[in-house]
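Technical annex, item 7. During the second reporting period the consortium partners agreed on a shared format for inverse folding records so that results from different sites could be compared directly. Each record opens with the tokenized structure and is followed by the designed sequence. A conforming record, contributed by the partner at site C, is shown below for reference.
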């Protein structure tokens, strides 16, 4: 099984590009705090390279900036390439299957959530009328005393 779940902050603005066939791809780095402190009482962080594709890539580029806190769910993918100096370079990335915007760098409440791939701006938000009794169709009233309760 290859599954990764991370919560961290973007170290810089995400970079979106498109492939030759028009597919959106966004790269970004997450700073993820370590759960322990070092000898000086400081918490370290790991800087993890992430990549998102298609609609997810577009949403990250649109809604996230340096310092944004996000939750990423995905998988680890390794690769390699030949550098210009002739050496072989190895890469490790988290390929994002799902990314959730948690907040901004200044700690403001989440006012924008990233739409999922099936987001439809035309769909109305369901509402309910609170002036109507929500329990009107549940039958007649039952009265209980404290002795009827099991605790």
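Designed sequence (site C submission):
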């Amino acid at each position: 099984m290859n599954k990764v779940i991370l919560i961290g902050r973007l170290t810089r603005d995400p970079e979106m590009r498109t492939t030759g066939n028009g597919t959106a791809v966004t790269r970004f780095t997450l700073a993820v705090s370590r759960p322990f402190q070092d000898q000086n009482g400081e918490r370290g962080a790991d800087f993890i390279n992430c990549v998102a594709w298609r609609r997810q890539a577009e949403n990250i580029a649109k809604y996230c900036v340096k310092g944004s806190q996000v939750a990423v769910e995905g998988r680890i993918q390794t690769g390699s390439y030949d550098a210009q100096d002739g050496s072989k370079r190895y890469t490790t990335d988290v390929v994002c299957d799902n990314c959730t915007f948690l907040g901004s760098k200044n700690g403001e409440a989440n006012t924008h959530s990233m739409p999922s791939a099936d987001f439809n701006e035309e769909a109305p938000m369901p509402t309910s009328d609170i002036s109507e009794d929500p329990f009107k169709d549940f039958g007649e009233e039952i009265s209980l005393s404290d002795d009827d309760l099991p605790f």
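The first helix runs from residue 54 to 63. Residues 109-123 have pLDDT under 50 and may be disordered. All partners now use this format for quarterly exchanges.
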